[in-house]
Amino acid sequence: MTLISNDPVQAPVFIGAVAAPYVFVTDESPADFEAREDLLDAAFGAARFDKTVERLREGRFPAPGLALVAKDAGELVGTLRLWHIRAGDVPALLLGPLAVDKAYRSRGLGRRLMGEALFRAMSAGHGAILLVGDAPYYEPFGFARRHTLGLSLPGPVDEARFLGLELDDGALKGARGVVTPAGARDLPVHRGVFELRRAA
Ligand SMILES: CC(C)(COP(=O)(O)OP(=O)(O)OC[C@H]1O[C@@H](n2cnc3c(N)ncnc32)[C@H](O)[C@@H]1OP(=O)(O)O)[C@@H](O)C(=O)NCCC(=O)NCCS
Predict the structure, then answer these.
(1) ∠46-67-45 over CA atoms, to 5°?
(2) What average pLDDT does range 55-81 have in this prediction?
């Protein structure tokens, strides 16, 4: 698989008729917390916490180097995270959530976040990525249902949306069983802040 990294000479993103050349993809930082939560609330609503995949993310840190944001002049306009999981006995990553601010959609920003994330995951030696999402969006990146047929998630899910990508050919071939979280546990103080914000 050939992937193109986040080009340091950023391709312009067009907002209306005006080029916005400063939209760039970079690492998420702790200072992005509020803006990222706001973006996710706007994109998915409160129901995002009820999703089965949330059970694989809650109380965990995202995979190191695989929490990305898109920013326009310092303002957060996109987010994508990947998480350590085990796909049965196979170490893998879970992708999501992916969200782009409404005003910036359909200008290739989602693709840029995905491209950077896949490039970084492959460069770091990860073999496989799972996600639950819309196949028409993710299939062009190589995700397919056939890679997850032997796997199940820890809760209800629309199986047609449960997709996998092999960064290493055959990485998911023997993957059988339940997908479980495998990321480093988040600090209790962080979890407390997160819970407070959710409750607000
Ligand atoms: C999905 C999302 C991240 C795409 O971001 P984006 O920056 O608009 O993505 P891109 O510009 O790279 O791609 C846009 C294309 O993807 C298509 N697309 C967007 N969401 C899609 C979806 N759920 N299913 C299929 N196609 C989709 C758009 O129609 C557009 O097609 P076009 O180029 O022919 O106009 C953004 O629409 C979003 O934040 N949606 C709400 C959150 C969400 O649903 N995230 C998970 C997706 S399963």
Answers:
(1) 10
(2) 97
| Run of H or E including 19 | strand 18-20
Residue 5 has a pLDDT of: 44
- Per-residue pLDDT band for 9 (boundaries 50, 70, 90) equals very low
- Give me the sign of the Cα torsion angle 89, 168, 63, 115: negative
CB 112 within 8 Å of CB 71: no
Per the model's pLDDT, the better-predicted residue between 165 and 199 turns out to be: 165
Nearest CA to ligand 1 atom 39: 99
Q: Tell me how far the alpha carbon of residue 137 lies from the centroid of ligand 1, in angstroms.
A: 6
User: Which of ligand 1's atoms lies nearest the C-alpha of 109?
Assistant: 7
Cα 118 to ligand 1 centre (Å): 17
Q: Which residues line ligand 1 (CB under 6 A)?
A: 43, 98-100, 105-111, 133-134, 136-137
d(CA 18, CA 14): 6
Report the predicted TM-score, pTM, of the whole model to 2 decimal places: 0.90
